[in-house]
Amino acid sequence: MGRDILSVLLLPLVLQIFTATSFEVEAVIYRSIVLGGRFEAGCTSGLNVWYLNTLPIDLQTCGCNATTESLVIDPVLESSTGEYNCAFGEIWKLWVIVPPSVRISGSTEYIAGQTLSLFYNLEEGSNITSVRWFQDDSELVSEGRIRISGKNLTKSILNSMDIGMYSVTVTNDAGEDTNAVKIIIQFQPDVSVVATPSSLVTLTQNVTLQCTIRANPGATLVSWTRRTSEGVEEPVSLHRETKATDEFSVTTTISTLEVSLNEIDSQYSYTCSAENVLGNSQNSITVQKGGTFHA
Question: Confidence class of residue 196 from pLDDT cuts 50, 70 and 90?
Answer without folding.
Answer: confident
